[in-house]
Amino acid sequence: MPHVIGLDFGTTNSAVAVAMPDGSTVLANFDADGERTTIFRSVLYFDPEARTRDGRSRAVAGPQAISSYLNAETRGRLMQSLKSHLASRLFRETYMFGQKYTLEELIALILRELRAVAEAQFGDIGSSVVVGRPVHFSGAGSEEDDAFALSRLRRALEWVGFDRIVFEFEPVAAAYEFETQLDHDELILTADFGGGTSDFSLMQVGPGVRRRGHTAQDILGTAGVAIAGDTFDSKIMRQVVAPRLGQGSQYRSAFNKVLPLPAWLYSNIERWHYLSFLKSKKTMQMLAELRLQALEPAKIAALIHVIEQDLGYHLYRAVEQTKIELSDRALSPLRFRDAALDLEQLVRRDEFEIWIGDEITAIAACLDRLLEHTGVVPRDVGSVFMTGGSSFVPAVRRLFEARFGAARLRSGGELTSVAKGLALRALDMQS
Question: What predicted TM-score, i.e. pTM, was given to this entire model?
Fold first, then answer.
């Protein structure tokens, strides 16, 4: 019988797992420059110098996309955070070196590689899959938007050979994984902090629940908000990097008026997945004109260089590294050096926490709505399982410590717990 896999297609990272008959889980392994990893970066790289049989630019996904991008003599296009566009009706298609791609086609290129690696390791995985989904997709303002996002994700999955698709909330999947660690039944809160969304579930789990079989009634409630790791990164980008690229500076118009540079440029820079879209002929022509009129032309030249050379990934890594270090340190240097941008600035944790203050408040409000909606009070919660990269951010942890107490916080498998839980959900389907 083919394995039914659990597939966590994430905004930043993806993972694949299968569950064994004994309830254990095995993660797919990916090659990253000769090293084995269970994390697949959700990125695509289009090589302008390599072509497929039908004449399109060759695309590679995951770790190979990153290494190809870093080693290319002629820089191609690196695309990331595609999942965050699923609910948007504005992004239907884009062009890569003259060839048109829909969003579903781009996502399918990533999913095809995930499937190929899974089959190489596990053998036949058939046409069934359990896939994670956020409670609400990034940018979704209604149930119709979420349904639209799911329909697009389903279409991409069908294009890579899956026709029996079950979607499961990501925090519920993480709860399935945490349940394997329990020797008693209890009500748990799962807090899953991804790249694009933060999602929560209240769920009854434990060995007794597992023996009798999980039911929909075990899930007391779910909630989510489109704030997570990418949002936190964007605050560092706004405060530290964007001013060096011209944010807040001015230019002199043809009518000799001094005007601020267009704010929308820097909104796009804050969103890593939008940076590559600035590399259009129209935008680059506008930037060339602005550089001639700018009061600080070197900053606009640096911005043009970052866009032309597709340096978004390098900036992303520098900012992300600073954010990670601030989880353990009171201050961390943000370093980024390139021909047109030489940046080294200390970032203080207390400053960073001010920058993300509104987002922490919004996460707290989402959590409180879930508790109020379900009628659960914090003392009723046995454990709080925090997973995902941003679960380490001290301001986030303090929020949960204040609500539930530090003794009840649990963590582990921050980047793979959802995939393992989805595999366990798949195992339930087979029994």
Answer: 0.90
